Amino acid sequence: MNLKKRLTGVLCILAMLGAVIFGAMQTDRIEDVIPENVLPARPTIRLWYTDEAIGEYLSSVAFAYQEANDVRVLPVLTSGLEYLEAVNDASVEGQDFPDLFVVSNDSLEKAYLAGLAQEVDPEGSLLNPGNFPQAALDAVTYQGKKTAFPLYYETSALVYNQTYLAQAAAEMETDAKSLVPRTIEDILSFADSYNAPETVEAVFKWDVSDIFYNYFFAGNYISVGGPCGDEETQIDIYNEEAVIGLKAYQDLNQFFSIDAETSSYEAVVQDFLDGKLIFTVATTDILGRIAEAAAAGAFPYEYGTVPLPDVNGQVKAKGLSVTYALAVNGYGAQKELAVDFARFLVGQESQKMYERTGKLPARKQAVTDVPGADGFVEEYADSMPMPKLMSTANFWVWMEVAYTKIWQGENVSDILKSLSEQIMTQVTGSEFVEETYIEVPTVEEIQTEAMD
Question: What pTM was estimated for this model as a whole?
Answer without folding.
Answer: 0.89
